[in-house]
Structures are given as C-alpha cells and as structure tokens.
Write a structure and sequence with these properties.
Order of helices and strands: HHHHHHHHHHH
Number of domains: 2
Structural class: mainly alpha
Strand content: under 5%
Oligomer: single chain
C-alpha cells in the first residue's frame, strides 16, 4: 500500500484536530468540550475518544502539527544558499511571522498556546532542540565560510536561542503585539547585534 495514501483513520484524526482548533479559536479552549467538537462533526463523543484520549490529547496533536510546520520553515531557511548572517535573520523573522499569523491573531488562541505549553512540554522541548540544531547548522556554515569566528556552535546556538525568545515564543509575541511593538524591526536589530559579537573584525 502506498504510504502517501491516507487511511480513513488519518482523515478522521485530521478532521477532529481541525474542527477542535476552529472551536478553540471561536469559543476559547476552556469553554470547548469534547461534546462540542463531536456535535460540530456530527459524530458521538465516544467516536472522538476512539482517536484521542482527552481534549488535552487533541491539543497536544495540534501543538505537534504547528511546531512541525515551524520546523519545516526553519530547515528550509537553513538549507538555502544565502550567507549565514542573512539566514539567521530570516530564520527568526520566519518563526515570528508564523506565530503572528497562526497563534496570536486572537486573544482566545492564547488559551490554546498556554494549554499546549502546560501539557505538551516534551513536544515543545523536542521542538526547541530542533530549532537549536537549525541555528547550530547556520553557525557552522558561517564559521566554515569565515563569516563568523570559530566559536563553539552548540554553546553559541543556545545563547542566540535564549536571546531571541521575544520573537519565537508565541506568548511573548502576543504580549509585545498588544503593546504595539514593531517586532520585525526589533528582531532584525537583535539578530544583527548578536552576530556582530561573533563576526571577525576586518
């Protein structure tokens, strides 16, 4: 059987996730019950529980899907042919753009993000590791090309990751947007400041 052909259970899981996410955005995470998701799909709650153990399990699946999309964008940036410094800046801007578009467009969505962070910590930790690996790859390329000094790529990646949290954590992004901050300009300035510290003096 062709692995690319979706089985019916996969289709049903996807429909449940999409419907749940729509309701979380419309009603808020706390106010949405499994029964609401089932009613929207015209199926019984018992049928939902065949695919997901709980509402939290649905949130975790949505979280994994969102973070996978971020990781795909990140690796695409890392593997592009631009200079390492440009790739690092674009990486942070791509993650920021994703969170602005998908996770902080409405106040209710923050409930979903909070629930995902509270209940999907292993998933989020794995995601952080993946993004750190992307940053490390860009740093290694920059070091090999003489664009960056011969710093420790893993240690420097950790420093950069901690420094760009305001642009990569959806909860912080949402708070900054409420305050009217120009996050794109701040992200560019922050990345350029960080990279100046490892750029050889000509």
């Amino acid at each position: 059987m062709n692995a690319q052909i979706r089985t019916k259970p996969d289709d049903t899981r996807e429909r449940i996730m999409e419907t749940a996410e729509t309701l979380f955005r419309r009603m808020g995470f706390a106010k949405t019950a499994v029964a609401d998701i089932a009613a929207e799909l015209r199926m019984s709650p018992a049928n939902i529980y065949r695919f997901f153990d709980s509402k939290i399990a649905i949130v975790e699946a949505i979280c994994r899907r969102c973070l996978s999309a971020v990781e795909e964008k990140a690796w695409a940036v890392a593997r592009s042919k631009a200079p390492a410094g440009q790739r690092m800046e674009r990486l942070v801007l791509e993650i920021l753009a994703y969170h602005k578009e998908n996770l902080v467009t409405e106040h209710r969505v923050n409930e979903l993000v909070v629930a995902a962070i509270e209940h999907s910590w292993d998933t989020i930790r794995t995601h952080k590791d993946a993004v750190r690996n992307v940053v490390e790859l860009i740093l290694r390329d920059g070091i090999d090309d003489g664009e960056f000094e011969a710093v420790d790529p893993r240690e420097t990646a950790e420093v950069i990751m901690r420094s760009v949290v305001p642009f990569t954590n959806p909860l912080v992004v949402g708070q900054c947007l409420e305050e009217g901050d120009d996050l794109e300009a701040q992200a560019r300035a922050s990345v350029r400041f960080l990279l100046r510290a490892i750029t050889p003096r000509r």
